[in-house]
């Protein structure tokens, strides 16, 4: 019995150590750094790659289905995408994979979100870690060369508009 307990504890320690080592390899990004690439698929199964949108500014929004303030950002992002379509690509990165629930809430709230949405990615935990996401909504403004210009937390229409007027 003692050997089984020791073996189980050894396996747990090895797994925890492996997870910790892998988590430490992920480069955290901030203002002035090159953006961490995001590769995933949208709600229609189309492949999305953040690096493919270089040449335009990118407004990257991290969101979650159960985030109340996130729901207030979708109409703002639609407006911004339409207003700055020749200079800007708005991309929403959904933390969860609950697209059915999101669609039901969007229909109930009469939201037709027209921006690019990344729903699935093999790399979600690394992406969240790299961008240091600790709440939603979280925004990153990325310049034409892929460098992070600004980041901020929260649903702040005035901040979004102020940042985008500069571009």
Helical percent range? 25-40%
Q: Output the CATH homologous superfamily.
A: Glutaredoxin
Overall pLDDT: 85
* Strand residue content: 15-25%
Unreliable parts: 5-11, 16-24
How is the CATH topology named? Glutaredoxin
Q: What class, by secondary structure content?
A: alpha/beta
Q: Given this structure, which CATH class is correct?
A: Alpha Beta
- Rg, alpha carbons: 19 Å
The outline comes out as: globular
CATH architecture: 3-Layer(aba) Sandwich
Count of individual helical segments: 6
Provide the domain count: 1
Describe this structure in words.
With 167 residues, this protein is α/β, with parallel strands linked by helices. It has a single domain (2-165), classed as Glutaredoxin (3-Layer(aba) Sandwich). Helices cover 38% and strands 20% of the residues. It is built from six helices and seven strands, in the order αβββααβαβαββα. The chain has helices spanning 2-24, 68-71, 73-83, 99-108, 124-130, 157-165; strands spanning 39-41, 47-49, 57-63, 88-94, 116-118, 138-142, 148-153. The strands form two sheets. Strands 5-4-3-6-7 form a five-stranded mixed beta sheet, covered by helices on one side. Strands 1-2 form a two-stranded antiparallel sheet. Strand 1 and strand 2 form a beta hairpin. The longest helix is centred in the N-terminal third of the chain and has 23 residues, at 2-24. The chain is globular.
